[in-house]
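Second attempt. The first submission of Amino acid transporter had a stray character pasted in from the spreadsheet, which I only caught after the job came back as garbage. Lesson logged: always re-copy from the clean sequence file. Corrected sequence (76 aa) follows.
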Amino acid sequence: MNQIHNEQTKLLATGLNNVAVAFVVIGGVTPVTAMSFGVASAPSLSFGTVAFATVWLSAGVAVHWAARRALRSLKP
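This time the job returned cleanly.
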């Protein structure tokens, strides 16, 4: 039963980490890409844009931390 538990835990951690990566892409990569394609210019780098990026990046870090936390329940 330990092996089943460990595999399910690893699957959960992988899923959570994939969500964390998506959050980082939304918050970090998307604004930079938008500016490089001219969709958002440098002057539009307002407080709202920075807040948007900060919230999504923080959420990504939090979900990644939860994935790492889930792995602590692995059994020998």
